[in-house]
Each structure stands twice: as structure tokens, then as C-alpha cells.
Amino acid sequence: MRPLTWFAVAVILTVAGGVARADAPHAVSPGSPDRFARAGERCPTFSWSAVPQALAVHLVVFDATDETADPRLVVHVALPPAVSSWTPSLEQCLLPGRRYAWRVGAVDGEGEAVWSEPAWFEVEPPLAEVPSAWVEQLRERLSVTPPPTGATTGGSVATPRVPLPAATATAAAKTASLFSVGNGGAVTAGAVTADSFAGDGSALVNVDAVTLQGNAPSAFAPAVHLHDDRYFTQTQLATGGQATVHWQNLTGVPAGFADGIDNDTTYTAGYGLTLTKIKFSLAGADNTRPGHVVTTVDNTGDVGQYASLAVGTDGFALISYYDATNGDLKVAHCNDLACTSATITTLDSAGNVGRYCSLTIGADGLPLISYYDVTKGDLKVAHCSNPQCSTATISTVDVAVAGLSTSITIGADGLGLISYYDLFNRDLKVAHCGNTECSTATISTLDSTDDVGRFTSITIGGDGLGLISYYDVTNGNLKVAHCNDLACTSATTTTLDSPGDVGWYSSITTGADGLGYIAYYDATNGDLKAARCTNANCSSAWLGIVENVNDSGQHAAMAIGADGLPLIAYSYNDPGGGEVRVVHCRTPECWGRERVSLVLGNSGEVILVTIGADGLPVIGYSESGSNSLKVIHCSNSRCAPHLRPR
Questions:
Q1: Which candidate, 397, 403, 373, places its Cα nearest to that of 383?
Q2: What pLDDT was estimated at residue 281?
Q3: Is residue 218 part of a domain?
């Protein structure tokens, strides 16, 4: 049990001349000093050994039910010095089923207290009738007069009158709680009557039971309910009753709906469905199903080079790309999830602009595009004015032949972070945007050893810092830069793969575990390779060959699918022609994988991949031969066949 502190249950005795410890009072009943003894009454009599020389006696009772908290004071009484017992009044009785502790003490003339040892007990009242004394006390507290001997009768059962004494009404209501009903419980005429009130209660006259029985109307019981059609009972509603809604009394109702009629005619049935019929197909977990869609998005001239792909806040894919015929930066906004059609917009046509473009969605929900201005040799950024990117604000971020191989993402601070190649100095650089529009930026050089920085790709790692893969031109190596702060003003660089000429077309993303994944091309062997970082800064990685048949892996692009596994799209070439291929990894390390050929005969010169709002891969590419921009919408997470060209 929890020990009592100095303020615990006690009786305090005030004594005339000092009281020695031997003269301290002893708690006798109820309870025990070393255990919870059971008390059978809620109003137990507390007794203790008397201390004759005490000047005053104080008894204190604490509720000690909660052993994790200090005892709570519930009773504190001062008693005459000669008293050695005390019984609480009805108002002071204790609660059943709770544990209590008490102690008694003496205080001498100098104020020195002498305490008894605490006694512990638990109140658990017996199952017995309520004592008659309690009934009498309750009757007095309620001011109820017992039935008089000369009660009237109503049939076979005595029916007393319940007198209501004349009095001025006060805030404390006077209630007659005891009355009798005649005829075995049935109310009859004259069975219940009441004397009149005086003063403020004069409006309450004798109430005769005649006015309370049957359906006879009176001021106390109107003949009918005064409910109108605004009120309906549960029975009415449960049996088909119809409720009329009074719309004029409702507030906060959407416009066009205040009359109870939905005027919205803009509803759609969803992709692949109409309002007059439903299409569906059944497939097992490992089966494929038709529905792959290949769409030509733009074929006006030589278009689609340096493309980049993202999914907008409206759930539709958005593609930025270079129009080589006109030297313009263009954007295609898909009109549905499968991108069966798109709206084309020219964003920048001032000079030869749009190469090396990279697209992401900003913290404001609007697209942000980095790209290279060939005419001026500048790194530029376009901040779209709406999710469709029909217009944009253009800003110059860096000058002096800087801005090749751009890659953009949004940092943990909600601002754009751009990695790019400075052709003039042959360095890897980063621009950290100063606002969501990226109208200003802080420029930092991350790697200036030799000729480095081509084929950059940037992502945000699990630690919230930037992670950049890039190609070391001088040494033919794949390298990684891990930013040391949110603005990436400096970075730690690591060579991940070095034998031969490796690191072309690098594409980096972050897995579900927060670690980096990189797909890249081994130019020496013509292989598609992958690296999985083993830590947040990617100072080491697992390296593996994904495909080594003929020439595989150019223009590689990587994404993490809805199943949490890597998906790599790339270009495959052999003497008979080219293909756009996809590898779906079966493990995070991509040790087990399945390969799918999506487009036969024409390889993609630029390939990009993302995961759509429906959880399915969307792949864009620039088709060799036709020089057109195309999009593939896969029908499953593995991009397995079949294809349906459009």
C-alpha cells in the first residue's frame, strides 16, 4: 500500500502541556495499521484512545484508493478534547467500494502535534435493507410529510392527500415525492389532489385526476400534438413516412443545392467507362490484361528530345521536351490518366531553348522546369502558372555556358534544387532556389576535379538531403555527390563504379527504405547496370548488370513502382533494329527481374518513366525514325504485354 505523507488521515489533539510520544492517541476502529480491514458501513464510528490533557482533537480521513497518487482528503473535523469517538453524519458518509486511511493526533499548548499511526480500511456495505433512520433523515431533508391517518380511499387502496404547504416559492424547489394512487395503480377522478400554493405558487391549483385521464384536453394535456410537418416520429419514418425538408431554414448549403436538387451535370464515369455501360475485366494477381496504350503525343517536326515527365496535382502526366525543329521548349499536358491525348503548349521560344529540360512539381503544386538556353548559354527555369502549364514565368538562374544536363527536384525545405553541368568550367554545380518560383538562386560548385558533371540526376534521400549521380568524363566513372545541407552548398563525393567507361545516362531515385537507386549505361560493354546505395550518403553500393545482351541501357530511366520495387526503362539495340524495353525488379537489389519489350522496331532516343496517379507506370520516349514524342501507359505494375497502339 502507498505510505501516507504528513498530511494523511489523522486525528489531531491540542494538549495543554507537552504530550510525549507515549501519550499519542491510538486509532482503534475502523481499520488496521498494517492492512486494509473491511468496514461494513458507509458511516463507521471512528474510535481512539483518549488523551485527557489535549486542548483540541482533529480527525482527518483520506481516500487512498488510488495507490499511484497521494491520498485525497475527504473528511476533516474538529472535536472536543475529551472525545474518543466520532460517527459521521449522512452527508459525511463514505463511498462504498473504496479504500480509506485515518489517524488521530494531539496538539499541545505550544502547537506540537502528536499523531497516531494511520489505520487502513475498505468500505464495502452489506446487502441489507436501508436503515429506517436514513429514511427519516431523507424524509426530513425532502420536507415530505408522512401520510395522515385519515387518508381518503380510492377503491381498495388507501389514497392519502399530499399537502403542499402554503409558502412563497424560492430557488429551492419543494417537491412532493410521496403519494398514493387509488384502484390498484389506475388514476381515477379525485384520486390525486393537491392543496393550493400561496404567493408565487398561486397559479398551481388543486389538480384533479379527471383532467389527467383519457384524452380530455386541458392546460396540462392538450387534446392533440401541436407538431406540423417539420416533426416526424421514429415510427412514421420507419413505416415509410416521408419527411419534407424546409430548405429555407438550412444554412451552409452549397450553391445550386438549396432547393434539394443536385444541379451538378459535370460528373464523369471514370476512365474507360461511360454513364450508360460498364466495362470490366478479370485478372489473377500474376496475370496480365489488355490495356497498354501507346499514344503519339506530338509529331509536328523533330520533337521529343531531352524530355522529362512528372504527374501533376490534377493526377495527369505532364511532359516537358525540346522541339528541335523550332528550337523551343514545349509542354504536353495529358488529358486523361492513360494520356490518350494531350494539350501542347510552347513555353519558351526566345532563341534556341529547351535542351536538357527537367520537370518536377513544386511545393505550391505547380510544375517547375529547368532547361538550357543554347543561344545565351544560360540555365533557365520556367515556373508554370497552373497545373496544365499553359503559361509560365521564365527566370535565368546561371550564365556563362552553364545549364547542360539539368535535373531538378524539390528539397525538404520546399524549394527547388537543380544539379547541372557547367560546360565552361567543366564542373558539377547545384542551384538552390530562393523561392518557389526560383526567380533567385544560390549557386554552388560541388565537384571541380577534372571534367565532371555530365548526365546528372538528382533526388532527395531518406535523410532529407540531396543525392546526385553523375558522369566523370575524364576518368569514365560513375560518381555520387551527397549534399551536406539543404541548400547543397557543399557535398561529399564518391566514385561508385570505375572499371571501363561507365556512368552514362545515369538516373537516380530513392527507394522505400530511403536509400538511393541508380540505373546507368556501361559504354565499354554496352550493358545496362544498376547500383543500390547501402547508406544514406551512398559512400558504397551494390553493383550489378541488369542486361548485357547486344547494346542495352542507353537513355536509362528509373522509378520505384507502386509495389516498392525498381522499374527501369531503357533503349535496346541489335543489328535487326531497336526496342524500348522495361525491366521490373523482383527484389530491391534487382537480383531477380523480368524484362518486357514494349515497342519493337524503333528504339527510343530519349526515355523517361514515372508512376501515374493510378499506380501504373507511364513511359515517355522520343521515337527514332519518326522523331515524334510518344507515351506508353502500362496496364499493370510490371508493364507486361499486351500493347494496344493508338
A1: 397
A2: 39
A3: no
Question: Which neighbouring-strand residues pair with 122?
Answer: 99
> Terminal CA-to-CA distance of the chain, rounded, Å?
81
CATH number at residue 46: 2.60.40.10
Task: Report yes or no on 219 lying in a domain.
Answer: no
pTM of the model: 0.57
Longest Cα–Cα distance in the chain? 123
Q: Is residue 338 a part of any domain in this protein?
A: yes
Q: With 0-12 CB in 10 A as exposed, 13-18 as middle and 19+ as buried, what is 383?
A: buried
Look-up of cell digits 474510535 = 47
Task: Give 294-320 pLDDT, tens digit per residue.
Answer: 899 999 989 988 999 999 999 999 999
Amino acid found at 301 = G
- Domain endpoint, select from 96, 123, 150: 123
Residue 507: φ, ψ to 5°: -140, 125
Whole-angstrom Cα distance, residue 335 to residue 63?
71
The parent domain of residue 630 ranges over 292-645
State the DSSP H helix or E strand holding residue 371, giving kind and residue range, or none if neither.
Answer: strand 367-373
What DSSP designation does 328 have? E
* Dihedral in degrees, nearest 10, Cα atoms 530, 536, 541, 547: -10
Q: Which of 276-280, 408-412, 575-579 has the lowest mean pLDDT?
A: 276-280
Burial 553-581 (b: 16+ CB within 10 A, else e): bbbbbbbbbeeebbbbbbbbbeeeebbbb
Instruction: Quote helix, strand, coil % in the chain, to nearest 5.
Output: 5, 45, 50
Q: Is pLDDT larger for residue 426 or for residue 577?
A: 426
What's the CATH code of the domain at 581? 2.120.10.10
- Mean pLDDT, the chain, rounded, equals 76
Q: How far apart are CA 92 and CA 60, in angstroms?
A: 12
Confidence of residue 283 (pLDDT cuts 50, 70, 90): very low
Decide if 121 contacts 98 (C-beta within 8 A): no
Give the count of domains, the chain: 2
Model confidence at 152, pLDDT cuts 50, 70, 90, reads very low
- Measuring CA to CA, which residue among 18, 15, 12 is closest to residue 61? 12
What confidence score (pLDDT) does residue 125 get? 58
Average pLDDT, stretch 191-202? 44
DSSP state of 142: T
Q: Which of 77, 107, 123 is the last residue of a domain?
A: 123
Q: With beta carbons less than 8 A apart as the criterion, state whether 42 and 94 touch.
A: yes
In a domain, 386, yes or no: yes
| Structure confidence at residue 242 (pLDDT) | 56
User: Which amino acid makes up residue 6?
Assistant: W
Once rounded to an integer, what is the mean pLDDT over residues 520-542? 94
Select the more confidently predicted residue: 123 or 160.
123
